[in-house]
Structure prediction request, 697 residues.
Amino acid sequence: MYSYSNFDADFVRNRVAEFRGQVERRIDGSLTEDEFKPLRLMNGLYLQLHAYMLRVAVPYGTLNGRQMRQLAYIAETWDKGYGHFTTRQNIQFNWPKLQDVPDILDALADVGMHAIQTSGNCIRNVTADHFAGAAADEIEDPRPTAELIRQWSTDHPEFAYLPRKFKVAVTGSPNDRAVTKAHDIGLRMVRNDAGEPGYEVVIGGGLGRTPMIGKVVRDFLPKADLLAYLEAILQVYNLSGRRDNKYKARIKILVHETGLDELRARIEEVFSRQQRLLGEVDPGIVARIDAGFTPPVWDTRPAPEAPVLDAGLRSFIDTNVVAHKQPQYGIVSVSIKPIGGTPGDATSAQMRVLADLAERYSHDELRISHEQNVILPHVHRADIPAVYAELRMAGLATANIGLVSDIIACPGMDYCALATARSIPIAQQISESFADLDAQRDIGPLKIKISGCINACGHHHVGHIGILGLDRAGVENYQITLGGDGTETATIGSRTGPGFAYDEIVPAVERLIEAYLDLREGPEEAFLATYRRLGLEPFKAALYGVEERADAA
Amino acid sequence: MTQVIDKTGFVADEWPEDGVELPFDALWTGQDLPIDQPLAVRFDIFANPENLAPWFDKVDMVVLPFGTSADGRGFSLARQLRQLGYTGLIRAQGHILVDQFRAALRVGIDQVAISDEQAQRNPEEQWQSVSLSEGYQTRLFAAE
Ligand code: HEM
Ligand code: SF4
Prediction:
């Protein structure tokens, strides 16, 4: 894993010291809340419905055991004993006290972590495929690229006051697990015809109130040109992005209003200048980053061949374990979505169990996925039974990855000041109504995603079933979208029609799933495939009842 | 009145009395340029630095407007001017936070000019205590 250089460590410590001074000035009153606001946001500290919220970056989703233990310690010492994993590979603490935040940041710095640029109109925490370095289908590990971008974007003097926040995601696999097409910049690692490594660059994706799928601005960007090209995109955006209306300030709107071809021409022009002037990225730094991601020394014991007899273990393996690039290994996803629980909430005790399992069985690596789960990326297949047994004891063995109860939900009305409706209780009720895991497996792969307002933190636009909670004259109302997809075949879901009241939405989802079970050609046809084959109509009929039309034969 | 600040702290405004300050557009509309006196150009936030390039060696100071602290366009304009080869003085004028000072210096701005009212709220020590340590970008592009 990448470990901090002296430069990284000094940088982070200086930032904590600086923030400690600012907090002191805020508490003694020499800074007003208005003056303090941009300063705290730069350090990931939000003011929420009930308290401050601290958002900590897990760069490209990778953690080691020591770091996870420190998150557990922070949750227990300065919060209520749990943390919340988010869809942007961050962890949020919902109840810190202002005067404790500098100590929390110091505790993070002790293990090479920080909360820098997790909010504000700057380049945010860079996310990457959570199976990076492990996935069987990977062309190249995206994390060295993500780390390079982290360094380049940290405290970038030109790009700290952009028109709006700016999110970058990287994937090294053809199967896009990082939702790159819903980011301001999505990078897909590819090879050209000559076999040289590079990137396909996508810009202008985003969710929120005007969801858009990103567009390819460059088919192939040689690897060495990455930062010069990013500088060009950011400079064009910084100068031309709209600043008159924050709802139109994302780069997706610039792409939409300017047109991709015109924007590409402007980017290429700035790029040719940047390429000439910036020079090469220091090869020593690149080598140090690459060295941080050399694969572990693999355990060469063969995978056990005996069939798995224990039914619980078997379904855990079927559902939560996927192929690793080393055939004797598996990638184990640990569901942070127990039936009826809050998606993404993990207690300190659970974090410690995860840290411990990572150290003993996963080459000391953990990942946070944008689906709010935790991953043990490198588990030898012979160790899976032991891992499963310990997860079970910690209440972490729910075998529901990718199934109907593996729901993404934003904090919604329970925590968020912007919310127009509750989202966590909806997730809990759906998960309870499909509590039987065998029935869930029969339903098959299904992504339900829930947001508590139009900002779409819960990614509802790219859910196979998306749920958006709104406020209609003081009453919660939930809109459904169908057919969204966040992978390489990214699609924004289509609205079914009028929304549903709080007590109608879970039965509505049940009707959708019953309709799917009736309509599918067989168990191999997943919900999304059935939807694509048949379209919206049969599902609308299930939701709203069949309308008798005069012209129907 | 304004207070001029550079990396040493509060300094007197050394722009000479007889200096001529013109808006950017004036260059293009053919206004006569001073022959002997120094020339400053008040830049427009929408303008393209490339369009100033023909006059780079005649201009002694570019004044960049900073409207609100959230508007980061001035940082890009300064950096572009430097990248295009402008070597004269760059002054950032308007609303610049102490916390933006280091970034301003790093993109090639030489001095900022803030209102006297702001100078009272943000006294000299605050500006002087801004750390001018090297940033990630300087390290990455050792050649820049
Ligand atoms: C609770 C406090 C939160 C607040 C106040 C908040 C606020 C916002 C706002 C205003 C946007 C829309 C930005 C835009 O479209 O320009 C947004 C987008 C987003 N937020 Fe949050 N958020 C919060 C929590 C979260 C959490 C917990 C997650 C992860 C589970 C999250 C992940 C995202 C994502 C992925 C987007 C993507 C939309 C996009 O980039 O287009 N946010 N958030
Ligand atoms: S989608 Fe809305 S309610 Fe949910 S976290 Fe984001 S801003 Fe808050």
